[in-house]
Amino acid sequence: MDAPETNDAASSEVTPAPSHEADAAVEPTEPEAAEEGAAAPEVDDAVEADAPASEDAAVEVADASQTDAPAPGDAVASEDAAAESAPADAAAAEEAPQAEPASASEPVSSEWGRVDENGSVSVREGDEWRVVGEYPDGTPEEALAYFERKFDDLALRVRTLAQRRLRGGASAGDLRGQAKKLKDEVTGADVVGDLAGLNDLLDALMASLTEASAEEAAAHRAAVDEAVAQRTAIVERVEALAARDPKSIQWKQATTELNAAFEEWQAHQQSAPRLPKATGQALWKRFRDARATVERARRAFFAELDETHKSARDAKTRILEKAEALASKGEDGIPAYRALLDEWKAAGRAGRKVDDALWARFKAAGDALYGARAERDAAEQAESAPRIEARKALLEEAKVVADTADVKKARQLLSGIQRRWDEVGRIFPRDVERGLDDQIRRIENDLRSREEVEWKRNNPETKARANDATRQLEEAIEKLEKEIADAQAKGDTKAEQAAKDALDARRLWLKAIGG
């Protein structure tokens, strides 16, 4: 049997029917099989002509087509199902009487379509009828049903697109492009159905998608502007790092910051909206140049540092060799070791590991010298133990000096103790000797203070001056006593009080000079 004929637009979509259509022609009791053979390719062509923009969208459209597909009378599900149903169809064909084909002179019509006497199928568009094709080898009902199924396929695709718009998640711009393609297909489509209503639905959908596309574009622009600002902030941080003085940079921290900035850049590229090509390239060039500047400064810094460390290492190695050569001198090598220690401090850093290793050897050389001194000090301390006890005994004996009233006898006693003190000899360690010397010195200072007072008291000149002052004060006191008596006789209390005050002062002076 030949495939159904349509107008120019329809004829380009219809493909030859599968081979089982010929069987359906022999079995007129199975007319739907012929219709299925003609309808199935048309649906596939329509779906392929407007495939969704992504695989997920294609799956959604396919699922919706399968769920909303018409009941038996549409395309056969698979070759296996057709093979299984073939015996049953053959048995039914043998038992059922063959139906008579409809007469071409009997027109058939529905709400949106009709089939005239010549087999031409038309669709109603307002008050006008438009021919959409012919179905000469089937009944008028089959012809009308075929073109109605083509309309159902278009309507299904429009409903699926509307559902995707309601569910969200898809780009409004992509959906608008698909809706525009569907609009072109629906306009003047060779189908039978409410094309005006379908066009109205598409117009409303496209209006909604146009507004959503504008909002989506504005949001995208805002997101791009924010992404540019974030990317620029990353670049500025790296540029600020590149502008710093290499000598003042903590390179370990700076390297960490640079790596973190690069990782942030990569993460931003993955998560943020794509930047305009020119803007993105300009920012990347700035980032790359700043990072290269930092890397060059870091390499130069560490190259110079390596050279400095090498010079310090060589200098400290020479100092170390000199220090180790002092081991044979023992304690006498300590002054030279101290001088080498000053040179060591001035040599600079040679790197932590190298410095630690060299310093361990240098310190060991010094420990050997100071160890010799420590051994001598230990021997001297052991030798000084009886001397310490002897001086402590002399200190106990010297305590009676303070209790001796006669200054001359006290001096004789202390001089004998000091003579024996010197005969004891030096004491080690030095701090113990200094402590004992301080105690005997305090006793001597106390005695010297007593001697000065005694000397002042017994000095002839001092005595003469004291006697003259005593005489003058005694005369003044006698005179004041007479003045007090005269003031009392006259009743002059003011003069009496002034004389008494002067008298008290003279008596205190007299007492002070020992009169």
TrEMBL record:
UniProt entry keywords in alphabetical sequence: Coiled coil
Q: Where is the composition biased (Low complexity)?
A: 49-64, 71-111
The record's listing under Pfam families reads: DUF349
Membrane-spanning intervals of the chain? none
Q: Which InterPro entries match?
A: DUF349
In this entry, which stretches build a coiled coil? 459-497
- Region called Disordered, residue ranges: 1-135
> What protein name is recorded for this chain?
DUF349 domain-containing protein
Q: Which organism is it from?
A: Microbacterium stercoris
